[in-house]
Amino acid sequence: MPDTLRHFKAEIFQALAHPTRIAVLEQLQNGELTVTNFVEHLGLEQANLSQHLAVLRARQIVVTRKAGNQVFYSLRDPLMIELLDLMRRYFHKQVGESVALLDEMERADRSS
Amino acid sequence: MPDTLRHFKAEIFQALAHPTRIAVLEQLQNGELTVTNFVEHLGLEQANLSQHLAVLRARQIVVTRKAGNQVFYSLRDPLMIELLDLMRRYFHKQVGESVALLDEMERADRSS
DNA sequence: GAGGAATATGCGAATCTTCGCATATAATAA
DNA sequence: TTATTATATGCGAAGATTCGCATATTCCTC
Questions:
Q1: Do B26 and B72 meet the contact criterion of CB atoms below 8 Å apart?
Q2: Minimum-distance nucleotide, CA of A69 to C1'
Q3: Which residue lies nearest C4, CA-to-C1' measured?
């Protein structure tokens, strides 16, 4: 695969690589929201949120719809939901494995 | 969701957010490889590759097996393959949509 | 049009990432 | 033991990201 393509993919992953932006995307799974909604739910500075939204916009992960005073954000592609879902599964599996490992170590420790 | 969990997910995405590391993971989909293999396939400095591999190791995305002189790398979890695959699909869809949009703009342009 | 609400942008400081280069470690071969 | 091959690590410079704070911009209401 040419490096340009990998570069594109890396940029998407990069856009997802921040807790705040993950929170934003998770909120968006249930439908569109305004910036104020995000601020209320996440308890962050409005300007900071706007900066994170700008990152997601630049990569076209979210799209906006302007209604009067407000801007509604939504996910551009439902595949993004699948991606987040897969990451959730990955996360749970990893945590599960770590716990199992700790259990095992403890058992070994007790029996020594 | 607590922020700690999002932080963990963000770290995984972060680890994927570099063309070289994506290339490494794509190579690993077919089985384990040594550092020298990567260097040959990707044409990069060995030290640089080792640094990228260290990032993937730190997040436990890859695991290693030492055999004499060499170190074999492999993916820890097959879910990672699914994740990359989903990103491939996402990528193709985005590119497709962009091309469609350009076509449309061109058509509109001609007819004006 | 003046004031207020919702959102975006500019800037500088602090922090993180990436690279190249030099060097360390570890296993093997001679 | 010395040399060689395979891999990892340390360091510093260049660049990117993130945050808080100040300030724009845009739309609405009076």
A1: no
A2: D27
A3: A69
Taking CB atoms and an 8 Å cutoff, what residues of chain B touch A41? none
| B48 contact A CB<8A | no
Is residue B32 within 8 A of residue B71, CB to CB? The reply is no
Per-residue flag: A42 CB under 7 A of strand D: no
The candidate with the shortest Cα–Cα distance to A48, out of A76, A13, A21, A80, is A21
Give the span between the Cα atoms of B88 and A85, in whole angstroms. Answer: 16
**In sequence order, which residues have a C-beta less than 8 Å from that of residue B33 and are 6 or more positions away?**
B27, B72, B73, B74
pLDDT digits (tens), chain B, 112 positions: 677 889 999 999 999 999 999 999 999 999 999 999 999 999 999 999 999 999 999 999 999 999 999 999 999 999 999 999 999 999 999 888 778 877 887 887 777 6
* Alpha-carbon distances of A44 from A17, A20, A41, A51, A72, rounded to whole Å: 18, 9, 9, 11, 18
